[in-house]
Amino acid sequence: MKRASQLLAMPIMIWAMYTWNFSPPGAEAQFDYRVKFYSEECPQARELVKDVVLNAITADKGLSAALLRLNFHDCFIRGCDASVLLDSNFTNVAEKDGFGNMLSLRGYRVIDDAKAAVEAVCPEIVSCADILTLAARDAITAIGGPAWRIASGRRDGVVSFASETIDNLPAHYSDFADLTRLFTKKNFTAKEMVVLAGEISSTLSPCSGSP
User: Fold this and answer.
1) Quick one: how far is CA 156 from the chain centroid?
2) How many of the other CB atoms lie within 10 Å of CB of 155?
3) Of 34, 50, 69, 73, catalytic
4) Model pTM?
5) Among 82, 85, 170, 204, which residue has the least CB neighbours within 10 Å?
6) CA 69 to CA 182: how far, in whole Å?
């Protein structure tokens, strides 16, 4: 467990800084306020999400990597706005059914369960975007990985296009040039790209496509 924590530390800290940058404007200057974003309207939110995630990880440890990957694929399209959770309909194919997502992402049910738990206590307050980001962090700490503080206050996206996954997500056949182009667009250095690309790609489960 200690070894797993050490291996996860660098990519997770890089990812923590990235998701922080997709927090609401001004979060850096209001750190305590943003970390405690729901402290008045829904103080139980974080514990409710954590409890759901821990129960899920107990039943399936592979969900820890799956939830981190789900968060990664969400943030890499339109920022951390939970647009990856939106369903396709008759007029639009959403991100979750797009290239690089349809056969590789799972963990949606955990997010649904966490959202239901929070809604039962604090209806229409906590965003799915915050729940997904919290769940990814809690999933990593549940297997002995590092913990990090998360600013809350994200708002849920209402737009989700499968077509946007093609130019924003790395493919299994992406070469170094492709990865460099994609990660540079997201303001990652080459070193950060190597660390993150290796870590996120290693989270692909043999049960890909499972809920």
Assistant:
1) 13
2) 12
3) 73
4) 0.77
5) 204
6) 16
